[in-house]
Design a protein that fits this description.
The complex is a heterotrimer of chains A (about 240), B (about 140) and C (about 150). Chain B has about 140 residues and is α/β, with parallel strands linked by helices. Helices cover about 50% and strands about 15% of the residues of chain B. In chain B, strands 2-1-3-4 form a four-stranded parallel beta sheet, with helices on both faces. Chain C is about 20% helix and about 35% strand. The chains are: A alpha/beta (about 240), B alpha/beta (about 140), C alpha+beta (about 150).
């Protein structure tokens, strides 16, 4: 059985030929697919949702998908939801350009040179959405974002290098190591009190962590995330070993 | 010719390959340059969504589809919408007859790609003339 | 058409390998005809699917002498221009003329009607060819890497 394919974000552009907005969606999507995020993105021709098979219709369930539309009809977003799955993000050319103070695009077959800025702006917006979606956990069976961080984490515990014997847990999150003193006994204590993984409990655990650790200013969010990951991992491991 | 009786050109506009861009360019060439009075583009994305105006157009007028690959999304979606395809073109087959015009690029077609699209557009325009006269365009 | 094939599924794609044939890592299959002593060669299902719809297939002239790895054929698809390497030392005996008018046979029936050439191998079994099971493993790794 092959391993699961690497995570990617899907992009579906309307490519509509009626208005310049359709051309903008096409060019912006291609810019992201070919230049800005080539390794993180994948696309499908919108008509394949009807002309293709079940595998094609599973696209927006399999990949968190960004729908990009050139007009209010929102053909890409609505058709994706109708035949595949609700897009994780829906972008409209007019809205993106207005937010950035750019004029409506001109030229359906060939965009005017002034309209090229709109393509770049939309491409940047799509790329930013790709980055956000790469950071979340996506359920391919549900076709929805799951709670909790997407970042792969590794957790290991060893003795503190100072020789005190206090265990230090290292949580590696997105390539960054965060070392938390006494985390394992704190988690053991919480588990022994019958607490189980949820965000509210993570907050209580974090309060105890602060008693034993000087959390760097400005780093609270990363520490909270690391503690949350470690706590869920601890509970999952405990449930597995207890057969709970 | 009124909008309602204009021959519908439906390009697949496939975003994955250069051939999709050839269909798009060919359709624009027909509708904007060669036969602006007698043809119109119907956006395939609207047909996919089930837009009533787009569906009505392909049901009431004659339709020419331009497809970039063997999945023939334009033809399939026109039929799904209740339209009949009077003439369908596969860019790959057309390219095989014009091997010197190799298309490249998706966002921007190469010079040969634009030339291939123009050659295809010319053939589509002539087919539309025949359809307009009630002559079987397959003949 | 695809009965009794070894196959794997990666993402939404199914890739098939025909048992009893031999293969190169580059996705060329080779099958011996015991009566003629010639081998037929073509593209594997994986190679044709990943390469895309074939527009043109340029085949060598009959009588061409090849060393394993030499350019055997040039195939232009809607995605790529790919060069097919000769699977073994051989002489070209026949080319598939049907591909002139119907190059899509390579996509439609890669292990059957879409064959490329018939070769007279210098030696048989030819060295460095994989059996179906071995090629399946190689193909799986290539498919996952591409995905």
């Amino acid at each position: 059985m092959p391993d699961l394919p690497q995570r990617k974000v899907g992009i579906v552009a309307c490519s509509g030929e009626d208005l310049a907005g359709g051309t903008v969606t096409r060019l912006a999507a291609l810019k992201v697919l070919e230049e800005l995020r080539p390794a993180q993105t994948v696309t499908i021709c919108l008509p394949l949702f009807l002309a293709g098979g079940e595998g094609d219709r599973a696209f927006a369930k399999f990949y968190p998908t960004i729908a990009v539309d050139g007009c209010e009809k929102r053909c890409a977003a609505r058709a994706t939801e109708l035949y595949s799955n609700k897009p994780a993000v829906s972008l409209l050319v007019g809205e993106v350009l207005a937010e950035r103070g750019l004029p409506p695009p001109q030229g359906v077959r060939r965009l005017s040179s002034e309209s090229r800025a709109g393509v770049d702006a939309l491409a940047d917006e799509i790329a930013a959405a790709v980055d956000r979606l790469m950071a979340v956990r996506w359920s391919r069976t549900e076709g929805a974002i799951l709670a909790g961080p997407a970042a792969s984490a590794t957790i290991s515990t060893g003795a503190c290098a100072c020789g005190s014997g206090i265990p230090v847990t290292t949580v590696v999150l997105d390539g960054r190591s965060i070392q938390i003193m006494a985390l394992e006994p704190i988690l053991e204590l919480a588990c022994g009190q019958g607490l189980r993984a949820d965000d509210a409990v993570s907050g209580q655990i974090m309060d105890t962590v602060r008693v034993y650790n000087a959390v760097p200013v400005g780093d609270e969010a990363a520490w909270e995330q690391a503690v949350g990951v470690a706590w869920r991992e601890f509970c999952a491991h405990r449930e597995a070993s207890d057969g709970a | 010719m009124s909008q309602g009786t204009r021959i519908c050109i439906v390009p697949c506009s496939g975003i994955g390959k250069t051939y999709g861009s050839v269909t798009r360019e060919a359709a624009f060439t027909v509708v904007e340059e060669l036969r602006p009075e007698t043809t119109q583009i119907i956006a395939l994305s609207q047909l996919v969504l089930g837009d009533e105006d787009a569906q009505a157009a392909v049901r009431s007028a004659q339709v020419i589809t331009l497809d970039g690959c063997k999945l023939t999304c334009a033809s399939v979606n026109v039929r799904q919408a209740g339209g009949a395809v009077a003439r369908e073109y596969a860019v790959l087959d057309f390219y095989r007859q014009h091997r010197d015009l190799k298309p490249q690029g998706i966002a921007e077609l190469s010079e040969d790609g634009v030339a291939l699209a123009r050659a295809l557009a010319q053939e589509v325009a002539e087919a539309s003339d025949m359809l307009a006269k009630g002559i079987d365009a397959h003949a | 058409m695809f009965e009794d094939f070894l196959q794997i599924m990666v993402d939404k794609f199914v890739f098939r390998v025909k048992p009893g044939y031999f293969y190169t890592e580059a996705g060329v299959w080779v099958a011996m005809d015991a009566v003629t002593g010639f081998v037929r060669a073509g593209l594997t299902d994986f190679r044709q699917q990943t390469s895309g719809d074939v527009a043109f297939a340029e085949l060598p002239a009959v009588g061409t002498r090849l060393i394993a790895g030499d350019d055997l054929a040039n195939i232009e698809t809607i995605k790529v221009d790919l060069t097919v390497a000769a699977p073994c030392d051989a002489v070209v005996m026949t080319v598939n003329a049907a591909l002139n008018d119907a190059p899509e046979l390579i996509n439609q029936d890669p292990y059957g009607a879409g064959w490329l050439v018939e070769l007279r191998p210098a030696t048989w079994p030819a060295p460095d060819l994989l059996d179906a099971d071995s090629y399946l493993a190689v193909m799986m790794a290539q498919a996952e890497e591409a995905n």
